């Protein structure tokens, strides 16, 4: 069995309560950090661990903490990004609802490290029941002296606020989140200044993902170096993967980074293989925003090496033959899936969720949806395939926030790897629009 950092105690009955969590060693990291470490020492352990942000971009957490400005007399904030709205990603939701004290403990040690006395957990607004679970956990921790004024008699104060999100995917983008937290419309901000200099209420702020922060209790207890021993290369530690689609065992799995994609996909400990009698056609490895890979590039890289569940291996080959680990939303498609329909489906999401600030994204996501709709419904022309590619190029890199890239990459990669399927939809409209139709062509299936 692989090592578990986040989910080791997740199946212990009553783990959502303070008492059971405490019995499993919970809150020892708070005691250790507050009683025997300086904030700088906690930051140092985060740096040594090499843990990278689990919200999607994979930026090293300790390095981000090191950028936090510390002007005299100005408050600093830690904001936990629990907005989790990326299609295919549902791991933060799972962690918060099953073991809420892990995040609360992570928030306390991280806030202590950053010198924050008021911190926020911004939770996807639809998850009201999770918000109540977190609020209950906060009340319990407060009653036991781990939160509030003078934590464990140390003189350190921390107030933790749970804020329901604005109900939009864009509110997961860190600066849109800060706007929303300030009570405004969730529009991303121009950067610089970055949140580390001017974030919430124009004060220095760190925004980190739920899973990133939940690693901190283990890192404080065991040391950053021990964390860095787990995983592979610069992909240290473990990662929660949300597995869905045409597999035997969908769910949330904690893996050691560096596990082979093949083992993750086929082992009974994880996905358990493709559903019976079917073949692997395509994979979206890191949530709807990352490039889709065809079967022949999933288990092996273009160089024939085993593809691993790591930041580096998944992106091997760049956009030509690689993808990204992203937020770990692992969506598997067998040969019954229609890539055109799926791409159209994703494009509807991005069009709906574009905040509308930047014209390339506001207009381009709408055009992509429209063109994909007509190809999917048998009214496309051959010109449409190149038109789509052209639109993706006009959006990518031309927007304030990366939602534009996130909308472009699924379309660009689907055409790059499955152009024949798009062409078939255009040249065989009546076959392509028949119920349950999916292109088989001569594509390599595994
Ligand atoms: C459109 C969009 C949506 C995002 N949604 C989330 C989200 O729901 N949760 C999250 O942690 N990061 C999300 N991010 C990434 C955040 O902007 C930010 O990089 C992240 O919260 C930083 O935390 P980390 O370094 O711990 O990953 C999103 C980014 C974009 C562009």
TrEMBL record:
SMART domains: NADH_4Fe-4S. This is NADH-quinone oxidoreductase subunit F. Its EC number is 7.1.1.-. It catalyses: a quinone + NADH + 5 H(+)(in) = a quinol + NAD(+) + 4 H(+)(out). Signal peptide: none annotated. It comes from Dyadobacter jejuensis. Keywords: 4Fe-4S, Flavoprotein, FMN, Iron, Iron-sulfur, Metal-binding, NAD, Quinone, Translocase. One of its GO terms (biological process) is cellular respiration. NDH-1 shuttles electrons from NADH, via FMN and iron-sulfur (Fe-S) centers, to quinones in the respiratory chain. The keyword Isomerase does not apply. Residues 340-385 form the NADH-ubiquinone oxidoreductase 51kDa subunit iron-sulphur binding domain. It is an enzyme of class 7 (translocase). Its cofactor is FMN; [4Fe-4S] cluster. PROSITE patterns: COMPLEX1_51K_2 (PS00645). Belongs to the complex I 51 kDa subunit family. GO terms for molecular function: 4 iron, 4 sulfur cluster binding; FMN binding; metal ion binding; NAD binding; NADH dehydrogenase (ubiquinone) activity; NADH dehydrogenase activity; quinone binding. It holds the Pfam family NADH_4Fe-4S. InterPro entries: ComplexI_51kDa_subunit, NADH-UbQ_OxRdtase_51kDa_CS, NADH-UbQ_OxRdtase_suF, Nuo51_FMN-bd, Nuo51_FMN-bd_sf, Nuop51_4Fe4S-bd, Nuop51_4Fe4S-bd_sf. The keyword Lipid metabolism does not apply.
